[in-house]
Amino acid sequence: MTSQAESLDPARIALVGNPNSGKTALFNALTGSRQKVANYAGVTVERKEGVLTTASGRTLRLLDLPGTYSLRARSPDEVVTRDAILGRLAGESAPDVLICVADATNLRLVLRLALELKQVGRPFVLALNMFDIAQRQGLRIDVERLASEIGAPIVTTVATRKRGLDDLIAQAEALTVSLAGEHASTWHEPDAAEIRAAHAEAQRIFKACVKPPERPDTITGKIDDVLLNPAAGLLILGLLLFVMFQAVFTWATPTMDLIDGGFAALAGWVGAHLPQGLLGSLIADGLIAGVGSVLVFLPQILILFFFILLLEDSGYMARAAFLMDKIMGGAGLHGRAFIPLLSSFACAIPGIMSTRVIDNRHDRLTTILVAPLMTCSARIPVYTLIIGAFIPQKTVWGFLSLQGLVMFGLYASGIVSALAVSFVIRRVFWRGTVEPFMMELPTYRWPEPRNVLLNLWARAKIFITRAGKIILPLMVLIWVLATFPYPPEGATGPAIDYSFAGILGGWIEPLLRPIGFNWQMSIALIPGMAAREVAVATLGTVYAVSDPDGAATALSATLSSQWSLASALSFLAWYVFAPQCAPTLAVVKRETNSWLWPTVMFVYMVALAYLAAFVTYHVAVAMGAG
Ligand SMILES: Nc1nc2c(ncn2[C@@H]2O[C@H](COP(=O)(O)OP(=O)(O)OP(=O)(O)O)[C@@H](O)[C@H]2O)c(=O)[nH]1
Ligand SMILES: [Mg+2]
């Protein structure tokens, strides 16, 4: 093969293996990518491609796939893997070589997969990953015998320490050269007898090649005796979540004050050094007041993710899913829905995508429909702004921050309503029992500091890029709408009332007056459809433009003087339920392949939001908060 032909069409290698065996960790180590790695099954739900250069200078394309136990795919993520391996994906041929990734400490199930891979007609190499743990446990594997039994070369690897990678790639590269001997796939859906036979064969090989560990992992069992205890376990889970939300509120305050001060100083500097006029107003009111009011929330978002990453990387997340199974099952949610719902605390979009691990279509749809009720991180700016402006900074019972408590309450309302809605969906759309939940519980591991830091960095980048790409241009637009046209000669009211924003807000406001929204709140909802936190930025800009003396007051101070407590609470209630995010609706359309479900989602969420805000507003007014 000439090097030119090769560069046009480099060989393709796919990583296949059981869930949580370290495929993505290998993929990242080999290609320098930063795909998500975590200690539970079902992290990867899409195919991802990367490029690597071998020691001999060849370019290879590497494919990371969702984990699976068999090519008899059940759930949508497993279908992706099966189709990629068999070359059934549109516009894509089967990979040239497979790397079967095995968790060396858990070989029983992967041997069945390896036997299936033999029928695919592509050469493969078996990577015995997590070999560090296998060695620590004193696990004895007869590697030579195993290689001859499965008819494939074996390489031991430690993906997280980049050990054995050169050897692995050298073996895989060698196999690409022998492609002349490639033959067609003989794989077919096995019948029951074939499945039993394969199972027995895998069992035989396992017994022949693997001796039980000398120092088996007993720690995981001991920890689980406590953490999986139905009473103590749930209590600890509740406590963990509670500490998490308290921390989000209290730890973040100093850093947030710092950032807030920074933006105020910047606005002051701009005010002093730029000539009063359009440009100064655009920069101070549009960019700094708008974008700055959102960027302030970065510390809170990072603290939340820090906790989630620790829970994910240690292996606790799968336990939490297990603990919640009973409660979720009572509400008609599948146990596997837990991790997608938990990911939705970051953002409903990855959460909805990770529902691909749920094989039953109805279970999956139920999860998708309630995922946006989980409080995504884009709601943090909205919640914090309003809470900061209206809820006093008090401690209750001596140690709990009242603001943190309200925040916890908002998160809890999201969770409780998700359970309630799923309960209703189960009765309205599809009855029937929820299938039993099975998920392998990973062994506990110390979180990998590098992994946690890289993930935090990735989160920070997403947040800041959103501020730059979505919020910034929108704020320029909002500033234009809030500034033009100028009020007519002899106008008496504030200038902004005559602007496009004021006129538009005036049109929408009657619709939202029953729930206590003023026109500024109403208008903030529209750009807030692009991303929820934009609503905060919009309020920042609209109030900065209408501020007559141009003094840089903190947005929260402005709000507490302009809104009644009842309106503020109503705004919070609205944001617990409102489908304030067009990208989420688009993903639901893509994942369900129909307009029906995004429509159902939009309608039920608007109805819930309006109802919740209406009740909140009127109850608050009745209690004297109007
Ligand atoms: N000690 C040790 N840990 C590893 C090794 N390889 C991966 N891990 C850890 O194992 C866990 C699972 O790794 P992933 O790369 O997400 O596994 P995956 O096979 O891609 O999982 P799915 O995408 O869910 O199928 C993570 O916590 C990794 O940090 C290894 O060689 N040694
Ligand atoms: Mg993965």
From TrEMBL:
Domain of life: Bacteria
Cell compartment(s), UniProt: Cell inner membrane
Molecular function as annotated in GO: ferrous iron transmembrane transporter activity; GTP binding
Boundaries of every FeoB-type G domain copy: 10-178
InterPro entries: Fe2_transport_prot_B_C, FeoB_GTPase, G_FEOB_dom, Gate_dom, GTP-bd, P-loop_NTPase
Transmembrane segments: 231-252, 258-275, 287-311, 331-353, 365-391, 397-425, 470-487, 493-512, 524-545, 565-588, 595-620
GO cellular component: plasma membrane
Membrane topology (UniProt): Multi-pass membrane protein
One protein family per Pfam: FeoB_N
Keywords noted in UniProt: Cell inner membrane, Cell membrane, GTP-binding, Ion transport, Iron, Iron transport, Membrane, Nucleotide-binding, Transmembrane, Transmembrane helix, Transport
Keyword Transport tagged: yes
Principal cellular location given in the protein's record: membrane
PANTHER family to which the protein is assigned, alphabetical: FE(2+) TRANSPORTER FEOB, FERROUS IRON TRANSPORT PROTEIN B
Protein's name according to its UniProt entry: Fe(2+) transporter FeoB
Organism of provenance: Caulobacter henricii
